[in-house]
Amino acid sequence: MPRESKASKRQRALAVANRMDERYPQTVCLLQHHDPFTLTIAVLLSAQTTDAAVNKITPLFFEKWPTAHALAEADPRDVEEVIKNIGLHRVKAKNCVRLAQMLLECYGGEVPASMDDLQRLPGVGRKTANIILNQGFGIVEGIAVDTHVFRIAQKLGFSSAKTPNKVEEDLLQLFPKELWQPINHQWVLFGREVCIARRPRCGECPISDLCPSSLG
What we know:
Elements: H1 6-23, H2 36-45, H3 51-64, H4 68-72, H5 76-82, H6 89-107, H7 115-118, H8 126-137, H9 147-155, H10 164-174, H11 180-193, H12 212-215
């Protein structure tokens, strides 16, 4: 198969974006939150855990610790007890408390609206920072590459990179900035409903004619 030109790949990417907009015209964060702080905690808790599982524990979590000031004084063992039904709960409990303490120590108790500052917080990497900026502050600096986005980017032939950050770089070069904002939410939903990791429903896929994997 001849190598695809950059122009052709970009045209295909725009077509994918248009069809995703048709299928998912309204993209919202599925994690329950009401401000940048609760969003940050919810996203931190969601690592290697489903959004649904996180949403089951966050009502009690935020009732007990609604602010960074409250959480900073919490005993990590008490936090563990509240989040014990999700994966990596011990590490996450420690990160949550330390994150809250760092917000007080360095940022006046507020979540910073900066990619660099966010990534200094415990448990926050670039993917998490992208989500916080996007959903919490309306700032679009990149594309959050989780397992769904990583897999779909590979299947579509938009990246062959081996790390999420490198995949993000490829996507940022391929899609114009005005299209970055909805990609994560759209592709996550698409990955759950159609492009499922173990059993992709290629016969039902609305972008199968745009996908090298489907075309063989």
